[in-house]
Amino acid sequence: MNWLSFLLAGVLVYVAVVAFLVGTAFRIYYWLKVPRSGIKLGIFPQTHGRRRFVQWIKDTFLFPQVLDVDRPMWLFVILLHIGGVAAFVGHLRLIQEFTPLANALGKEGMEQFSLISGGIVGIVLLVSVLYLIARRFKSPYRDISTPEDYFLLILVFMVLLLGNHLRFFGQVDVEAYRAYVHSLLTFSPEFPAELAESGTRWVLVTHVTFSNLLLIYLPFSKLVHYIGTYAVNLMRSEAR
Amino acid sequence: MNKAELKAVTGVLDKGMNRQLLYYLDVCTRCSICKDACHQYVSTGDVLFLPAYRAELIRRVYKKYFTRSGLFLPSLYEGREVDDRLLDELYRSTYACTGCRRCMYYCPFSIDTTWLLGVAKAMLIAAGRGAQILTELAGAAIAKGENIDLFKDIMLDLNKETEKELQSLVNDPTAAIPIEKEGADILYAALAGVHSILPPAVIFHKAGLNWTLSLFESSNYGYFLGDAEKGRIIAKRIVDEATRLKVKEVVISECGHAYRVMQYLYETWANEKLPFRVTAMVEIIARLIREGHVEIPSGKERKLVTYHDPCQVGRNAGFYDEPRYVLSQVASNLRELTPNREKNWCCGGGGGLVAQPEFDEFRIKTGERKAEQIKQTRAGLVVSPCENCRLQIAALNEKYDLDIKVTGLSDVVANQLIGRDIATSFEAGQAEEPESED
Questions:
Q1: CA atoms within 13 A on the CB side of B274
Q2: Is B188 helix (H, G, I), strand (E, B) or coil?
Q3: Strand pairing partners for B301?
Q4: What pLDDT, on a 0 to 100 scale, did the predictor assign at position B430?
Q5: Given CB atoms, is A194 within the 8 Å cutoff of chain B?
Q6: Which residues 107-146 of A have a C-beta within 8 angstroms of B?
Q7: ipTM more than 0.90?
Q8: Do B370 and B345 form a contact (C-beta atoms < 8 A)?
Q9: Which domains does chain B have, with CATH numbers?
Q10: Per residue in B35-85, pLDDT tens?
Q11: Which of A12, A165, B23, B131 has the fewest Cβ atoms within 10 Å of its own Cβ atom?
């Protein structure tokens, strides 16, 4: 690993993970530190008990009322979030192979499966984020957008673009990536020979760099809704 | 703007900060899905009325003055200084809002724009820019509370007249509209005007309730103004009266925001528990009919009737079924607006807009959705249990040639009880003189 790779795909990864976790905790602490107004802000009809819980989960993860007013947005937002989770799960394979699945499909089959499912997810994510970017250029979205919005979209777009590049054009075997991830997990970041000698290395370093930046900024940006949404959507059904 | 003024304005965000507000400031992604939820944005296409932008104005000030990231990189958030331009924009976007909270219904984060605008109003008041008419009206209500003895005699005289009207309407010379009756079960807080007193009086009389009329009107311009302290003092007039008379229940007239203030806001504003139950007019009518205290004579209205869910009665208080149940007792042909209930469009007149001539043209323009909705039903009578809604819909009727009558829920019930056409209005001096020798 040269010094630049070591910095961006090594040290920065740790910085990002710590910033994300500490930042998240900091945001929660800061919210809870501020006194709550006693006024209940729920809207009606209201649900109670178990039904309220179900309602809360539905509002938080499906926001069905958006279907009434903006179907394309609903679709792409749902795809973006499901895709995000799917991509996260897919990456776990680089820590530990999904052994039962790999046993069932065989090594070749597993590679095929990974190529197809990961490929689909990558494309869907890219299309979704492109939709969000295009939407930002249209009024009234354009009039309300701040540089923060574009900055975040560009970060996400870069992560996805480079991730897809690795998926579709990368010349490196999954074992090499796994070796790199394992080196990170053992706090001795290193590229295996196959990766170090390949041009794909630079795509990987950029992919990881943008991911790091996104992760660092996440808790301090408007995307803090990854934790905030639970609280605000619970307030929706808050009864007197 | 000098330093002290600036500090007073931004200080509102600092001192007035609460957890709910902070969540809303932090969580919005400016997705602007709310654009199709707001009747004002839909009708004008002006970004100033986009709910997310109304909130964004406050967020930009907050970012600029109170966040590390905003202090460090204000341009990333378009952080804004508090200056005349900002306050102008804030005034227009904030005092124009009717507080219907339809945007909250559609928001994937359930952001309550009115909660954010509450802070904006407090900032405007701190800058000496609170809506003038609302300030005057709130001031008048407070003055009345402080000098009630000056008003009392005139009110008692007026009430005698109203009482005579009631006696003639129900054809019972013993019918009464008690005032300051200690030990009554119910204190009824009406609006200014007999149209808000007579219909409930008819219903209460027929139900044989032990009730008394409040000296104070239920409407609360302190709330519309966004001044919680004034709002509290105005509502406290009724609270004190109810406590003094030891009533068990305070019934709020057909006035959306007055119910919201008493039921949802007052206890927090005043930091005290109310020693009585707060009931909306629609709620008590439904209860009296269900429990058999009033019997609706047969012969239901067969003409087409539609019901407009006032935002403060429906979405913000949850009375969807009660008014529909009551209407079904007096009219056989109810046609719903589309959409209705929690998805109903705001009439465009709430939030104190009908009281502010500067918004006259604006509210007629932004009421176009409501006018369309009503037209589609082909109904000739629109029933709505909120004074603001009725005034606005009556104005829409004129401007959009809807050819309708607008009335309240207690009006149709009272009319049915006394055997009149349900659309008859209750006005002062319309009742025939009693035939007695008196």
A1: 25
A2: strand
A3: B331
A4: 63
A5: no
A6: 139-141, 143-146
A7: yes
A8: yes
A9: 3-130 (1.10.1060), 134-290 (3.40.50), 305-417 (3.40.50)
A10: 999 999 999 999 999 999 999 999 999 999 998 888 888 899 999 999 999
A11: A165
